[in-house]
Amino acid sequence: xxxxxxxxxxxxxxxxxxxxxxxxxxxxxxxxxxxxxxxxxxxxxxxxxxxxxxxxxxxxxxxxxxxxxxxxxxxxxxxxxxxxxxxxxxxxxxxxxxxxxxxxxxxxxxxxxxxxxxxxxxxxxxxxxxxxxxxxxxxxxxxxxxxxxxxxxxxxxxxxxxxxxxxxxxxxxxxxxxxxxxxxxxxxxxxxxxxxxxxxxxxxxxxxxxxxxxxxxxxxxxxxxxxxxxxxxxxxxxxxxxxxxxxxxxxxxxxxxxxxxxxxxxxxxxxxxxxxxxxxxxxxxxxxxxxxxxxxxxxxxxxxxxxxxxxxxxxxxxxxxxxxxxxxxxxxxxxxxxxxxxxxxxxxxxxxxxxxxxxxxxxxxxxxxxxxxxxxxxxxxxxxxxxxxxxxxxxxxxxxxxxxxxxxxxxxxxxxxxx
Length: 419
Known about the structure:
By secondary structure, the chain is mainly alpha-helical. It has helices at about 15-50, 50-60, 65-80, 80-105, 110-140, 145-175, 175-195, 210-225, 225-240, 245-255, 260-285, 290-310, 315-340, 350-360, 365-375, 380-405, 410-415. The radius of gyration is 21 Å and the shape is globular.
């Protein structure tokens, strides 16, 4: 890795050894994760041919966020973060391997997939806020936004490669190979984490109960207007618009008439758009983004989702999916940066767990809703509900933000600290 002076500005987070190790391990693992995501959706459709059950599995995968996210955030502030991430990654490795064996041996049933989706959700609930809070300890606050953008670029590069590989592998060898490859992909990330020097040491013990510490994090989020707005937008966008694992497989199968290979290519198209958005952030973003930088991509993503409902050809669907991916990552990376650059270090785990709850915890409701709407009225109706709900929600939040009390006390606070 080149010295600091030779690193391009877009790659400045790579001057930190621990982040380089973390990044390289995660890149391999995330390719496998995206392969499993596509394979799981296709497996459920093969087993059940039910949009409702596909939505239910997605709901089970994210349901633990609703119950355990605050607990996970408090743990991240109390325990060494590196050890927590190692533990969660080890559970995810085991989950993928069990699913691979069940499919390979021909014993898999729908309830197996549902239970293992729940196991995945529990491990992921611990992993997400801990991993996000750990990044700042590897790179520092000055390079945090660049690290988040690079992390998003990595996530979406994997989102391109993983689904495309999954589609090709499933078409040739069946779904089991995707689960096996995902299990194998956890080995490099575990090795990389073992080599990371940063421990993510917890803050000094406060002597307060975990419930009191959780309430402290929630109070900070609710009483800091910029964080409250960001959390509410994440809630709306995640609930209505981030249901790709339910809507895209149904759209590819029922509207475009494609199989597993087509699904992989369409999911990869989303990833290409998202990768472009992440790279743009890495090059341009250094400061906390303004509200408009969050609202504009959210509104464009909602509009694109609604328009997709009336598109029947791949040539028209591809640019829409590219735009959806681009806008989605601009919004999510921007919201992550907004929260991380506003929250004090001692509250980071708890506040990021709330961000995780808004991002992933609401997904069970969105997935269940979209699966139910698609089952009753078809995927086109579900796309209209998804896009329309996202559009109305974000516009309502913008109206609140623009009409909120901007009296002297709030103005003074804005000058002295984040709002």
